[in-house]
């Protein structure tokens, strides 16, 4: 239990039964008339839905303990991703639903942050950018600008993104894991 006066960005609250909400931002408001209150923006941990919620100042709220650990992706086992804790060498099977869009950028050996609550995996978070090799892309034709100077490219994970015309098959590139955007070539 904590008070709304103790809220911090990133803190996870247990509201509306057992739903987990992360504090995105908060503001203490002391109006000229009436009692003080705390205006918050909360993000649902599982669905990503963002809502605004107001609490009276000093109200008690349930906090949840989220265990975030850096784990290494080992391999796929059917529909499950197997991660290994690098400290204990324990293996953890994570469902495709919990991995979400991070699956588009995972290759063996990548390190990801795995968040758990009471033994249940909530989500898998990758760094903002990762380096991947282009498995296949058509050659860019000079003068072909009808597509804005980009072409589709298939990454080694099987995910397809848009890259500039000068990028070729076999090149290593940097990709934004949040937007699937091409960020640049990686110099070897």
UniProtKB/TrEMBL annotation:
It comes from the Bacteria. PROSITE patterns: EFP. GO terms for molecular function: translation elongation factor activity. Residues 130-185 form the Elongation factor P C-terminal domain. Residues 68-122 form the Translation elongation factor P/YeiP central domain. Pfam families: EFP (PF01132), EFP_N (PF08207), Elong-fact-P_C (PF09285). InterPro entries: Elong-fact-P_C (IPR015365), NA-bd_OB-fold (IPR012340), Rib_uL2_dom2 (IPR014722), Transl_elong_fac_P/YeiP (IPR020599), Transl_elong_KOW-like (IPR013185), Transl_elong_P/YeiP_cen (IPR001059), Transl_elong_P/YeiP_CS (IPR013852), Transl_elongation_fac_P (IPR011768). Coiled coil: none annotated. The keyword Cytoplasm applies. Pathway: Protein biosynthesis; polypeptide chain elongation. Keywords: Cytoplasm, Elongation factor, Protein biosynthesis. Gene3D superfamilies: 2.30.30.30, Nucleic acid-binding proteins. Its main location: cytoplasm. The keyword Protein biosynthesis applies. It is found in: Cytoplasm. NCBIfam families: efp (TIGR00038), PRK00529.1 (NF001810). Involved in peptide bond synthesis. Stimulates efficient translation and peptide-bond synthesis on native or reconstituted 70S ribosomes in vitro. Probably functions indirectly by altering the affinity of the ribosome for aminoacyl-tRNA, thus increasing their reactivity as acceptors for peptidyl transferase. Belongs to the elongation factor P family. This is Elongation factor P. It comes from Streptomyces polychromogenes. The lineage of its organism: Bacteria, Bacillati, Actinomycetota, Actinomycetes, Kitasatosporales.
């Amino acid at each position: 239990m904590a008070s709304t006066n103790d809220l911090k960005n990133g803190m996870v609250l247990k509201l509306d039964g057992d739903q987990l909400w992360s504090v995105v931002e908060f503001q203490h408001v002391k109006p000229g008339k009436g009692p003080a209150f705390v205006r918050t923006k909360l993000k649902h941990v599982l669905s990503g839905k963002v809502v605004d919620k107001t609490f009276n100042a000093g109200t008690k709220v349930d906090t949840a303990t989220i265990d975030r650990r850096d784990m290494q992706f080992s391999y796929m086992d059917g529909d499950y991703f197997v991660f290994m804790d690098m400290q204990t060498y324990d293996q953890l099977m994570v469902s495709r639903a919990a991995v979400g869009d991070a699956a588009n950028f995972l290759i063996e050996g990548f390190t990801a942050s795995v968040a758990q609550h009471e033994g249940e995996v909530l989500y898998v978070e990758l760094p903002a950018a990762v380096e991947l090799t282009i498995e296949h892309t058509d050659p860019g034709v000079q003068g072909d600008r009808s597509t804005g100077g980009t072409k589709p490219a298939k990454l080694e994970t099987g995910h397809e993104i848009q890259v500039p015309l000068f990028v070729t098959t076999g090149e290593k590139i940097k990709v934004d894991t949040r937007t699937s955007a091409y960020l640049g070539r990686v110099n070897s």
